[in-house]
């Protein structure tokens, strides 16, 4: 039990829907903030506590330094006291370009380099000589990028044509151009012969030669030009230009006619020959970095050199953290840009575990996302480890197991939007269970398995042959149509890879992902769903004016904010700052338009209303009722009609897109973790929406999920694994949920069995 002596105290928090919330977050414990989606968890944790912590920290900096930071406006809160410095560990993808890898971002790579500088055979004493980000270690040919840009001959050259017929496709060598004339007048080639019929020497000269002079005529004049093969010239003129200063024409040409290939000098390892000459346990640092972390640990176990024992211990500790958090299938050389949001968040957590700072406040956004139930308990162990180093840990979570592991819970609610924004419970988990909150009620609710008798009968099959991408082993598998199929397996087992193969083999499959719905910054919930149109018509009818007056691109909309009521300012490299439009003060339209009313409300008022409020207000409008009803079905009735799509979370974006499909018949949909951001009670609504899509519209729904409520509700389960990476990629189980719970060797089956018992 953790004795709490200090608290972070929040008084009068009013961001978004928060109703003057008073809350106390105990220091140096693990606190879960819970509540239905839209209840105000993010508003409290991220928009109030984290923003205020950062603002207070900025205030302590000299004015000169503050000048370079975004002016953080004070959140709408009376006071937040006793705040430590905050570190936000969110699901934003890790950028950092080609030089950022799992090894570099976790600071494991420097330890490995130190190991090689001490124990490598032969030894290269300078650790920097093993770094592809340092001049001493990088491959000189590719400057440590591991790949080079090569002219893509399949695109650059049409071998069925002659020089006169336009064999060189880029306009740099257009028939009749000066560059083309040099090649033709060189006399080295028959300009009417297809390139396919060239000898090897001719082909080499055409592309790569760099010798001799050509006496040529061009535009009525005689010149002497030096001869350069087409690829050699194209490289010199365009590819070799500094990428930072390329003109748009250069960028277009390079994009169109080149591709990347592993650097031939270093074989893609990014390292210098010297670095690659040194070995530990018989392997180069590049070979060790390419191993899955679990395999790397096994190799390190073979080393028995007492002089480096402390280094090995440090290295093993860091690698074990990665394994414990369910990322043992990644390799240290994996680029961070290719990690999923959930993987990125866990990698960031591992980096924090290695830090020796304490008395910080860590805030996490649903750290369980993307994790199989098997790995969640290991992740909560790591959150506790962060706490035990003397930090306060605050997580926004929906996962039963994470909530149950918390020392303290703050539950917001009772509902979403205007119906939420209050603290319904604060205390330990036992008290939460006994409390009259939706979270307490659902925490121990049994998971109901769909019995075989209730399983839908498929209308057909989508066959996938020889599935082979990333770690998939080439199996055949069928996805039944007209039913709900859940694709399961531990993180890294191959679920996304299989869904990519399915989409490649059946292009009519629609992926409903968590990316922002294609839209510009003027798009709102109302414009995207088509709700704005009937709203405008209702206003026009009531006032005897044109409907177009109420449109965001009419003269009636505020010209400053295009009818959004807010303005987003992008400060280069820093966060985007949103502020109320100074021209219309958030009213979105000109005063003239704002004067038109519909049963007492202005158009701006309606756009401020939530979907639920609008549904009540427009109950008599059939078309609006359909659109708003679909939003309610996917659990989005707390969104405001005029909310810009740029403010939606990934999960909200995905459900918004799903709502759009509720009106269409048929269709095959693949959804990746649609329960992201959903409270247990909202998951039940999502299940209802999926059922409606299948039963009402004849759709086929395939869901990649870890949530056991969803797995239990499926008609068909495809379980991949059994492990991640090279230990996975195989078909472990296909069949009904009731068969899964008795299946041998399935982690999903084992956890589902425990949950239904
Ligand atoms: P939760 O994290 O519990 O899902 P949020 O704090 O994100 O809830 O949202 C609480 C309420 O505030 C919701 O009604 C939501 O629509 C609204 N809201 C969230 N972000 C914004 C924003 N940037 N602007 C206006 N309203 C917002
Ligand atoms: P899941 O969706 O089950 O989490 P994935 O299909 O994403 O699993 O990954 C399966 C395996 O393929 C893992 O070992 C993963 O590291 C690897 N992998 C996935 N995407 C890439 C990529 N872009 N580059 C290299 N390896 C990848
Ligand atoms: Zn190289
Ligand atoms: Zn405005």
Automatic annotation (TrEMBL):
InterPro entries: ABC_transporter-like_ATP-bd, ABC_transporter-like_CS, P-loop_NTPase
Annotated ABC transporter domain residues: 150-439, 449-745
Record organism: Catenulispora subtropica
Entry keyword annotation includes DNA repair: yes
Name of the protein in question: UvrABC system protein A
Superkingdom field: Bacteria
Principal location listed in the UniProt entry: cytoplasm
Pfam families per the UniProt record, alphabetical: ABC_tran (PF00005)
Swiss-Prot/TrEMBL keywords: ATP-binding, Cytoplasm, DNA damage, DNA excision, DNA repair, DNA-binding, Excision nuclease, Nucleotide-binding, Repeat
Subcellular location: Cytoplasm
């Amino acid at each position: 039990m953790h004795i709490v002596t200090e608290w972070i105290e929040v008084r009068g928090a009013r961001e978004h829907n928060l109703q003057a919330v008073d809350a106390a977050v105990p220091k140096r414990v693990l606190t879960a903030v819970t509540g239905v989606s839209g209840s105000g968890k993010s508003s409290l944790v991220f928009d109030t506590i984290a923003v205020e912590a950062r603002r207070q920290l900025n205030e302590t900096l000299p004015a000169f330094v503050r000048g370079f930071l975004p002016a953080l406006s004070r959140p709408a809160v009376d006071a937040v006291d006793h705040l430590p410095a905050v570190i936000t560990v969110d699901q934003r993808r890790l950028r950092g370009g080609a030089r950022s890898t799992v090894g570099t971002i976790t600071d494991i790579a420097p330890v490995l380099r130190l190991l090689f500088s001490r124990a490598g055979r032969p030894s290269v004493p300078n650790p920097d000589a093993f770094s592809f980000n340092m001049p001493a270690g990088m491959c000189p040919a590719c400057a440590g990028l591991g790949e080079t840009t090569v002219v893509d001959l399949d695109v650059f050259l049409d071998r069925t044509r002659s020089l006169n017929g336009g064999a060189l496709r880029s306009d740099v060598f257009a028939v009749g151009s000066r560059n083309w004339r040099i090649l033709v007048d060189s006399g080295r080639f028959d300009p009417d012969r297809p390139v396919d019929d060239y000898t090897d020497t001719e082909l080499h000269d055409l592309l790569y030669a760099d010798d001799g002079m050509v006496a040529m005529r061009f535009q009525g004049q005689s010149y002497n030009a030096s001869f350069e093969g087409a690829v050699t010239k194209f490289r010199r003129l365009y590819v070799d230009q500094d990428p930072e200063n390329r003109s748009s024409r250069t960028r277009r040409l390079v994009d169109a006619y080149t591709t990347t290939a592993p650097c031939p000098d270093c074989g893609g390892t990014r390292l210098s020959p010297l670095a690659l000459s040194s070995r530990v346990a018989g392997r180069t640092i590049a070979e060790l970095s390419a191993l899955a972390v679990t395999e790397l640990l096994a190799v390190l176990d073979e080393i028995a050199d007492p002089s480096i024992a402390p280094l090995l211990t440090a290295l093993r500790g860091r690698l074990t953290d990665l394994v414990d958090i369910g990322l043992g299938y990644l390799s240290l050389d994996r680029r961070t840009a290719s990690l999923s949001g959930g993987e990125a968040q866990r990698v960031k957590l591992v980096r924090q575990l290695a830090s020796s700072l304490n008395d910080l406040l860590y805030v996490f956004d649903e750290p369980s996302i993307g994790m199989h139930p098997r790995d969640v308990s290991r992740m909560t162990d790591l959150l506790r480890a962060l706490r035990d180093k003397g930090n306060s840990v605050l997580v926004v979570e929906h996962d039963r197991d994470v909530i149950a592991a918390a020392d303290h819970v703050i539950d917001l609610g009772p509902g979403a939007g205007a119906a939420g924004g209050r603290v319904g419970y604060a205390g330990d988990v036992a008290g939460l269970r006994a409390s009259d909150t939706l979270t307490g009620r659902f925490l121990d609710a049994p998971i109901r398995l769909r019995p075989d008798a209730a399983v839908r009968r498929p209308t057909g099959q989508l066959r996938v042959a020889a599935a082979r991408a990333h770690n998939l082993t080439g199996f055949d598998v069928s996805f039944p149509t007209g039913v709900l199929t859940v694709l399961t397996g531990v993180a890294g087992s191959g679920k996304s890879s299989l869904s990519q193969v399915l989409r490649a083999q059946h292009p009519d499959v629609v992926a409903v992902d968590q990316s922002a719905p294609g839209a510009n910054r003027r798009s709102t919930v109302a414009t995207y769903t088509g709700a704005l149109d009937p709203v405008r018509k209702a206003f026009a009818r009531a006032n005897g004016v044109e409907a177009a007056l109420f449109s965001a691109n009419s003269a009636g909309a505020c010209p400053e904010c295009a009818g959004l009521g807010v303005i987003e300012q992008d400060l280069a490299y820093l966060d985007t700052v949103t502020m109320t439009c100074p021209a219309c003060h958030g009213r979105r339209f000109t005063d003239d338009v704002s004067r038109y009313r519909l049963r007492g409300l202005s158009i701006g008022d309606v756009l401020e209303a939530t979907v639920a409020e609008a549904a009540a207000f427009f109950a008599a409008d059939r078309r609006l009722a359909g659109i708003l009803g679909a939003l309610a079905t996917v659990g989005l009735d707390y969104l405001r009609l005029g909310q810009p799509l740029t403010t939606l979370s990934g999960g909200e974006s995905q459900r918004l897109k799903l709502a759009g499909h509720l009106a269409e018949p048929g269709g095959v949909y693949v959804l990746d973790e649609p329960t992201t951001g959903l409270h247990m009670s909202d998951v039940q609504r999502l299940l209802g929406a999926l059922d409606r899509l299948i039963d009402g519209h004849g759709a086929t729904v395939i869901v990649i999920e870890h949530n056991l409520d969803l797995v239990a509700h499926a008609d068909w389960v495809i379980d991949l694994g059994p492990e991640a990476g090279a230990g996975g990629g195989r078909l472990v189980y296909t069949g009904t949920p009731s068969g899964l719970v008795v299946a041998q060797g399935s982690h999903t089956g084992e956890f589902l069995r425990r949950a239904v018992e």
